[in-house]
Amino acid sequence: MVEFYELLALVVSLIVVTLFHWIYQWRNPKTNGKLPPGSMGFPIIGDTFEFMKPHDVLQFPTFIKERVLRYGPVFRTSLFGSKAIISLDFELNLEIAKANHVPGITKSISRLFGKNNLFIQSKQSHKHVRNLTFQLLGPKYLKLKMVQDVDVLARTYMEEGARNGCLDVKETSSKILIECLAKKVMGEMEPEAAKELALCWRYFPRDWFQFSWNIPGTGVYRMMKARKRMMKLIKETVLKKRASGEEFGEFFKIIFGEMEGGAEKMSVENAIEYIYTFFLIANETTPGILAATIKLISDHPNVMQELQREHDRIVQGKPEKEAGLTWEDYKSMTFTQMVIYESLRITSTAPTVLRMTDHDFQVGDYTIPAGWIFMGYANVHFNPEKYDDPLAFDPWRWKSEDLGSILSKSYIAFGAGSRLCVGAEFAKLQMAIFIHHLFRYRWSMKKETTVLRRFMLMFPCGSDVQFSYDTKVDNSVGYRS
Ligand code: HEM
């Protein structure tokens, strides 16, 4: 009996020692150099819950502010089961963005993208799909093909909203985006399939920055189910079209190298995963940013007035009031562009450079170890030396700036380096055309609208705009009343 208790005591002691050793190792990760200051939080969970607390979109999270005060602009932590370095040092963010090409995503997000995804598979495949994407979404293509489609969709949805008296900005923007991309990729779709594709996004859980446990009841499980459903739908449409010889959209023709001077061929599976990535990123960024922008506009009557003037002028300049928008019209929306830049500056309160360091990286006395996730925040957007009164929403500050560039020494809303956003021009175009059509009506945003961030943008009270009765603006004589 005594032997049994001795054995039990030994086993328990061993477990306790192993546990303490594991906790010690968790808190003090082994590296080849000195780690940036910080703490790793609780084992596995790390600081995830504190990091994910919702916060005002125009402020950095308290989690970040407190740690910057305690440790300085570069610190270590642990999020979603991964070791992470958070940096608010602009120069370092740029250096890491240029020197590393591996995206800094959690395991749950890599599951979502798929392990064969060409955007993440290898340096070569990444380069290849980036080039391809520029053919699809670069200014040349937008100019030739996209303005008209986005214009028609935005006009149609806005008319429908005005008839109903209200419209949810985020949801409408998402519909425009998905319909527009779906048509470009797959050509005309059977109405049922198109409807189901749009519906898939409804099943898609909002907060996809999660722990990676794929077990029933978790967000990742629901996410993977939604992913499977979408991929199946896209694949079925593609295969059906191939078999029947029906025409694909221009994107798919480019993807399969069927057009003049086209790119290398890729498998159907690769192509579908690539298209899916596109839909996913596009849908998770632009609609939220657009809704936040509309909220900022509605909170600033002087901005509203200036936008009204700009869009009235465009409509008045047309021989026919209902004539479609042209590339030149879009390019003439200078103040709208300034509003979009300013909105992106001030709402960039989540990291805009996300990388996984592929080699140890020396920063002064500290080492950022290989394999850690690097999250670079756009602190520079709030630097008073770069932006006067940085917390103010002031589109006029962009008056003499180059609005053609999406990256500068004080602007990284679309990231930087080898993974600089490839959809930026398309996002700006979509936002500007949406704003144009909104200003053809008399509208206001619901008072209770709030914009929060929990890594992604959140609208707990929705993002509805209301149209007033007899809402249409008569641009030749001002408002009808
Ligand atoms: C206002 C809307 C958008 C914002 C704020 C935004 C922002 C970003 C940011 C910060 C990155 C990461 C860059 C880095 O890590 O350095 C990124 C990458 C990316 N974005 Fe966007 N994005 C937007 C819209 C879009 C749209 C509409 C699309 C597609 C149609 C898109 C496609 C992509 C892709 C594919 C990447 C990964 C690029 C790569 O890995 O090479 N984005 N975006």
How would you portray this structure in words?
This protein is α+β, with helices and mostly antiparallel strands and 481 residues long. The chain has a single domain, classed as Cytochrome P450 (Cytochrome p450), CATH 1.10.630.10. The protein is 51% helix and 11% strand. The chain has helices at residues 2-27, 48-51, 62-71, 90-99, 107-113, 118-121, 123-137, 139-164, 169-186, 191-203, 219-244, 250-255, 268-298, 301-316, 327-331, 334-347, 424-438; strands spanning 55-56, 74-79, 82-87, 166-168, 353-356, 361-363, 366-368, 373-376, 441-445, 452-454, 456-458, 464-474, 478-479. The strands form four sheets. The chain has a four-stranded mixed beta sheet, with helices on both faces. Strands 4, 9, 12 and 13 form a four-stranded antiparallel beta sheet that branches. Strand 12 (464-474) and strand 13 form a beta hairpin. Helix 10 (191-203) runs antiparallel to helix 11. It is globular. The protein starts with a helix and ends with a strand. Residues 258-263 and 475-481 have low confidence and may be disordered. The structure holds protoporphyrin IX containing FE. Residues 97, 103, 119, 130, 137, 278, 281-282, 285-286, 289, 344, 352-354, 413-417, 419-423, 426-427 line the site of protoporphyrin IX containing FE.
